[in-house]
UniProtKB/TrEMBL annotation, chains A, D:
Alphabetical keyword list: Cell membrane, Membrane, Transmembrane, Transmembrane helix, Transport
Transmembrane parts of this sequence: 60-79, 91-113, 119-138, 184-204, 216-240
Family per similarity comment: Belongs to the binding-protein-dependent transport system permease family.
Annotated InterPro entries: MetI-like, MetI-like_sf
Domain ABC transmembrane type-1: 53-237
Protein's recorded name: NitT/TauT family transport system permease protein
Source species, domain of life: Bacteria
Location, primary (coarse class): membrane
Annotated Gene Ontology cellular component terms: plasma membrane
UniProt topology in membrane: Multi-pass membrane protein
Any single biological process term in GO: transmembrane transport
A Pfam entry, by short name: BPD_transp_1
Subcellular location, record wording: Cell membrane
UniProtKB/TrEMBL annotation, chains C, E:
Keyword set includes ATP-binding: yes
Keywords linked to the UniProt accession: ATP-binding, Nucleotide-binding, Transport
Residue ranges of every copy of the ABC transporter domain listed in the record: 19-248
An MF annotation (GO) of this entry: ATP binding
Protein name: NitT/TauT family transport system ATP-binding protein
Species for this entry: Desulfacinum infernum DSM 9756
One Pfam family this sequence matches: ABC_tran
């Protein structure tokens, strides 16, 4: 059933796309979807496509893991401790809007031209999102839960493990879900230097060559990557937040 | 799609990039040369060729400034661009693009650099130039490792901080790099190539037969104004052509060729290169590519 | 029915002071109305207290202060001589709104206190199951709290407090959502624990009968800000068949009168 | 006190910046902060700066309003109705990761080169974030609240107004808070075409000239804009979510 | 004390059927245990029901079914002939966990039902204030529920149900968190409303005395799945001084015995 609905959604998108491409441009602005999908299908058989996909997926997955590892605990600490929050929040709020793109030269200098710089940039941007979402979520936690566990003699670590982490998980997952979109967008930016692998590179390069076939192969690949990441986050949440499925009445 | 200009009285919009080669267009606007010829032209600036091409395809522009390569790609994609004039061609003793070394790289010549990394952007005139320069300097194709860095300022920064050994850069950044201790190895000076061009849509040129001539006349006026009183336009250049602050007072005012069509042999050379790399399936006939005054 | 558990209930000498609160005062907003004023209470080793008083007078607030979840504006609380500034693992609390974690199963909620104290997984699960069985909740171990009825949730909260062999129990209306029969069963169970292990407790309740049945001393809290307006000694306490005695009914009547007086603000 | 902490945060950032700029580049990669701040101070006196700031602020504010207006109600509907969600979610999840940058030609075609295209692109990207966050938040709402209000004979509209909107507000605000960063980043992208006004343009233009003074004027201006937006969202939340301040014990 | 409000309580003829539930069955999970089985109940114009039964037997579930918040797996519910598939504005419910909205002040929580029915702002605020005053909550109007004690929250929920002049009241342990005196006051208040306006109600309670004092008929629910195992007519009901009568105590004893029987599974 879920699958049927995904197919329906895809069909609707293709229809809109087809209308748009028929109305304007006759392929100059948007290739027609039949062409695009057949090109996509053909490229699925080439190692070139899988090569790009693997490069991008690897970067994004690693970045998501890094961002989560750093931002999730920090977000919990900020959300749960007024004292820490009071000092760190201004720091976060002042640096959050700094466009990370301008940090590129510094990051490159410190971490070289390779994948490390790319991964760090994505996780920097993603990390902020996880941080803010988790912090807000934890700050809104009903304090009764904390009281209740504190009354059992729980220390900081227990509160963290038994209350704060499970309460923050859904918020972290929402941020991660949002982050799949952001990461994919940032791929463009980080795959525009010092690499010839990755879907971002594929799209930008094809765009530069005005090669729409390749460009839409890249775009479809990226949408696929995004949807897969999205579903992966959903799956993870399904497993880790089991209690959320228990509500019936 | 047609070109979106509701009425003949609406200005013709030209997409430009903030580079030196557009100075004559800026001068023509600044001095009102187009108006005096009875045509309305508006310059719309873009940060990079990608966005400019998107607007071109979206039918929002009727003309543009760009490189020859890009023009051919647009034509291949069914956007009927016609070259009115070369805006910059390389000439001996002048440089617009150059292969520059990082500060501290003390190889005396390009050939002596040996294995090294070079930053450039693929599928642009820079790649074409690098091929041409390397061939002329007789440096084998695989000697340098090419590293794609699309954003030019980033490329310069990476060169200056030593993460790239070499980079292909345009002016005025070549001069800037030189001032920071870089050595200039190869330049486009004597390649004699038409690098950048000014184009308009064919449908515009055909529906208003006198437009092309008027446009060229105004453009010519701007070029000669620039040649006569170069210093008068220094401020305009600094403002519109991204001249680094440290060079604004000293950067030599460039000289521009009088309007003219590119040399067919040179266009052919570019097209061969593109066909070889699969960027265009076949050559565009020279006659379709350029606009000639009907008389 | 009750097994002395591994950690063992401690049996204090009757004279030892377990909890001592002096002159507690509390208001919620800096310039808001006072909730408690100069409340003192001393819980000895063999003591049990029942606290009664009008709704909203500050009984829950008092328990929060006693267990260290809230801090008094003035006054101090000491547990076995130690000042209480944060909850003490030996003091078990049943909160009025149960305080069960929605993300833990019933069993894990009950075992949480043990987990925090580092009891190994198997042992704590086994203890939790046993306690759930005693409270009539066998079979609900793997459900989540949202899948239980109100009374079942309340019993889970009681199980959580009892499973850790506490040194002092603070109970905020622990039987309010239970039917008469379950309620009496659990009242007897609490008394049985006391009779065997002498775990002192402070019980907030609205039921006069419950207060008389379960409180060695009955405190009446009233006023705005609330103070202890009456302390009644309940000599008949401790006898499981107390309810059928004449003295029980006399005591209940006396408490009712005291509450009436308090309600009339005397 | 809040102000003091902001100043402390700024001081820490400046210190790090100063160390970095001293260590590397000697101004090639990072200007030194003293220079940058004095340039910023000087530019505050020029109408040029305010002109750029006004252009960017206008675009961002309008986009945020648009994104909110479209995505907040839709998010609530998706979060509260399983039926609607089942059909719309696949649509959202498939289109969410499509990099919006590639829609540029289509957007330009439909909405021209002016501010409308710019604003629509920002709100498109922002809107998705608000949508996903609000949907997730509403889906996690404790169903007892709905039951309780339904028992009063509430219709769909009442539930919407009395339960779903207030329950969704904090999530919407979190998304908006996150969105301030995203919008500022997208400004770069939309201010790189057909405009010579806006902080994004200022930064890119200055970068192209390697004019660090102007570039950091732009960056500081953007950080300021971001922080102001952030605080504005906080303020709005403070006013609209008054009950959240009532929890004391 | 009670003002007939603008919309007016409707006084049904004694014989009219207000609510009729036939053969209700319910289980929560498709293959889980049944919670209710074949429960039927007919509430006439002058009727009041008290429902008692062991904790977790399904009393709350029954109320949820009666008001249309849950749908039965089998059976139907009709209110004045109309099938109930969703909550009806004339049926007021006090839920066991109060169901107050944390984002609304006490006053706005109480006035919510009126707002939904389109009562103008001034009028509904005035009514809400009046009802809060009656329930002893004057002065809490502008607080949020999290700033109230448990008993105070419960009274807010009662106020919300009563303020709308309902045609039928469903009350799930509405007085469980209240002290004896407040509780008796509110029991009397409910009886007074019934005596004046004959608003029928179904009250779930754990207190035998409360069931006898407030139920014209007392239902005992028990078993797994639960069914009605006993329906007791309570002829003395309706007299405010019933509590002091011999018949009251006899009735209470009879109900206790019935509960005991039910608990033993007979
Ligand atoms: N969502 C649910 N999923 C599964 N089982 C449930 C769910 N809700 C309630 N139950 C079970 O249904 C039974 C009846 O619950 P209900 O709340 O109606 O009991 P009750 O008679 O009101 O009890 P109490 O007096 O304790 O409030 C209980 O055994 C409970 O565990
Ligand atoms: N966070 C708060 N802010 C302001 N006032 C509060 C807060 N919490 C409780 N109060 C008030 O303090 C008083 C005492 O509350 P408390 O919960 O201790 O009462 P209680 O005696 O336990 O009542 P109940 O029997 O109804 O549970 C009440 O009047 C209540 O309204
Ligand atoms: Mg209380
Ligand atoms: Mg119940």
């Amino acid at each position: 059933m879920r699958f049927v609905r995904y197919v329906a959604a895809l069909a609707a998108i293709v229809l809109i796309w087809w209308i748009l491409s028929a109305l304007f441009g006759g392929g100059n602005i948007l290739p027609d979807p039949v062409q695009a999908f057949s090109a996509f299908g053909a490229s699925l058989g080439t190692p070139m496509f899988w090569n790009h996909l693997a490069a991008s997926s690897g970067r994004v997955l690693l970045s998501m893991a890094l961002a989560w590892a750093a931002a999730f605990p920090l977000g919990i600490v900020m959300g749960s401790s007024r004292k820490v929050d009071a000092w760190l929040a201004p720091f976060v709020f002042v640096t959050y809007p700094v466009p990370k793109i301008v940090l590129l030269p510094v990051v490159l200098l410190l971490f070289g031209l390779g994948n490390l710089s790319k991964v760090l940039l994505i996780s920097l941007i993603l990390g902020y999102q996880v941080l803010v979402a988790v912090r807000d979520g934890v700050a809104n936690l009903n304090p009764r839960y904390l009281d209740s566990v504190r009354s059992l003699g729980a220390g900081r670590l227990d509160l963290f493990r038994e209350v704060l982490v499970p309460a923050a998980l859904p918020h972290g997952f929402t941020a991660l879900r949002l982050g799949t979109g952001t990461s994919v967008a940032v791929l463009f930016f980080v795959e525009s230097f010092a690499t010839t692998r990755g879907l971002g590179y594929l799209i930008m390069d094809a765009w530069g060559r005005l090669d729409y076939r390749d460009m839409f192969v890249g775009i479809l690949g990226m949408s696929l990557l995004g949807a897969a990441l999205f579903e992966a986050v959903n799956g993870l949440e399904h497993v880790l937040c089991r209690w959320r499925r228990a509500r019936i009445r | 799609s047609g070109y979106a200009r509701a009425q003949a009285r609406d200005p013709v919009r030209m997409g430009i990039l903030p580079v030196l080669d557009t100075l004559p267009l800026q001068v023509a606007i600044h001095e009102g040369f187009f108006e005096r010829k009875g045509i309305q032209v508006e310059l719309v600036s873009f940060n990079s060729a990608l966005e400019r091409d998107a607007a071109m395809q979206g039918g929002q522009l009727q003309g543009y400034f760009g490189d020859l390569l890009n023009t051919l790609l647009l034509v291949r994609n069914g956007i009927p661009m016609q070259v009115l004039t070369v805006s910059y061609a390389s000439r001996p003793g002048r440089r617009m693009f150059a292969l520059v070394g990082r500060p501290g790289l003390d190889a005396p010549s390009a050939a002596a650099v040996g294995s090294a990394t070079v930053g450039l952007s693929n599928a642009t005139i820079m790649e074409f130039l690098l091929d041409a320069l390397q061939e002329r300097a007789q440096i084998p194709a695989g000697t340098w490792k090419r590293i794609e860095v699309k954003k030019i300022p980033l490329r310069l920064q990476m060169l200056l901080s030593g993460q790239l050994d070499l980079a292909v850069l345009p002016e005025p950044l070549v001069t800037l790099a030189e001032s920071k201790g870089s050595r200039v190895y190869l330049t486009d000076g004597d390649l004699d190539l038409p690098l950048t061009v000014v184009c308009l849509r064919r449908d515009l040129l055909e529906s208003e037969p006198s437009f092309g001539a008027k446009f060229l006349a105004a453009y010519e006026e701007a070029v000669s104004a620039l040649a006569e009183h170069p210093e008068r336009y220094r401020e305009l250049m600094s403002r519109t052509c991204r001249i680094p602050p440290s060079l604004q007072a000293t950067f030599p005012m460039p000289a521009f060729p009088a309007p003219g069509l590119p040399d067919p042999a040179r266009v052919d050379q570019v097209q061969s290169w593109m066909v070889l790399r699969g960027m265009i399936p076949e050559r565009v006939p020279y006659g379709n590519l350029v606009w000639r005054s009907p008389q | 029915m009750i097994q002395p558990a591994a950690t063992g209930y401690r049996k204090d000498s009757e004279s030892e002071t377990v909890l001592r609160a002096d002159d507690l005062s509390k208001r919620f907003a800096a310039n808001g109305p006072g909730v408690l004023k100069s409340v003192s209470i001393t819980v000895g080793g063999g003591d049990t207290y029942a606290v009664v008083g009008p709704s909203g007078c500050g009984k829950s607030t008092l328990l929060y202060l006693l267990c260290g979840l809230l801090h008094p504006d003035a006054g101090t609380v000491r547990y076995r001589g130690e000042p209480i500034v944060r909850p003490h693992p030996e003091i078990a609390v049943v909160l009025q709104d149960f305080g069960l974690l929605p993300w833990k199963t019933v069993q894990d909620n009950v075992a949480l206190g043990l987990k925090i104290r580092g009891v190994p997984r198997r042992e704590r699960r086994q203890k939790a199951r046993e306690m759930l069985r005693i409270l009539g909740l066998a079979g609900t171990e793997d459900r989540y709290p949202s899948q239980l009825s109100g009374g079942e949730q309340q019993r889970v909260a009681i199980a959580r407090a009892l499973v850790g062999d506490p040194g002092l129990l603070l109970l905020d209306e622990p039987f309010s959502s239970l039917d008469a029969i379950t309620r009496e069963r659990l009242q007897h169970y609490l008394l049985e624990i006391w009779n065997r292990f002498r775990v002192p407790y402070v019980l907030v309740t609205h039921s006069v009968e419950e207060a008389v049945f379960l409180g060695k001393k009955v405190l009446v809290l009233a006023g705005r800000p609330a103070a202890i307006v009456e302390v009644m000694e309940n000599p008949g306490f401790g006898d499981p068949s107390y309810r059928d005695k004449k003295t029980f009914h006399a005591m209940a009547r006396a408490l009712r009168r005291a509450l009436d007086r308090a309600a009339r603000g005397e």
